[in-house]
Design a protein that fits this description.
single chain; 315 residues; mainly alpha; 15 helices; 84% helix; globular
Amino acid sequence: MTAVEKYQALLILAAVVTGLLLGQSYLIAEKAAFFILPFLMLMLYGVFLQISWQNQGDTFRHPRFTTVSLVINFIWNPVFAWVLGAIFLKDSPELWLGLIMLMVTPCTDWYLVFTALSRGNVALAVAILPWNLVLQLVLLPVYLLLLAGMLVEINYGILLKSILMMLAIPFLIAVISKILLVRFKGAEWLEEQLLPKVALGQSVFLILAITAMFASQGNILFQNLELIAKLLIPLIIFFIINFWLAQLTGKLFKFPYNETITLTFTTLARNSPVALAIAVAAFPDKPIIALVLVIGPLIELPILALVSRVLLDKG
């Protein structure tokens, strides 16, 4: 685990505080918004560049695990998020939508770290990662149309444009550049020399995007502190229920212990950067949605660390 990965929650918190302080300057607050989308696009390019497509055979050798994981992440979690919002956030539709966007995007990076720390099946976690990425890119607009359309007014033209700009363009550029880099520099150079720097850059651009967002929208946070506090209960319930769901599912399907650990973390960890990019681009007039997707990791990362400790003690 790198220092950036180890202290990611603290770095995000520091970015929030720094952004709030910078936002006290009217000039900075006015200009900061222009940097959010470019920083997020650069961050997503780094995410997509690091995706490995070479281990997909592992998912076919573990069809039950793959099926169960995908059903939990792409059927159960969206429905569960909608229900939690209906119970706790029905009077705050923007918070409800933010919760849905957070919960329907399974993680594609730091869940690998916690899987390794807890002695899970890292190879299987790597193999399921492209499935999680591709399906969330395809299904996120579907979830927004089906689940979010009844919560807030959605301009479908802007939504489609945002998805193309924030996801499709970085994804295609990453795929093309990876092909060219492997051809001209070699796979070994890519894996050993470039990708570690890309991983660092990915975290840096995420931190910069969060700093810029809070510099430009800090006043919105101060005006809605009570709304953000309302998120705690549904978020904590999500993590508790899904922890036990993954553990019981692992026992029911008689998965080896290391596969149950992998299922636990791919069920719990969320890909807030991808959802954040769409929220900022598609709902620029609803900053509360984006704030939810920044607050989420501040709660999620300590919980994942606690779950890792619990699983190690159980093992």
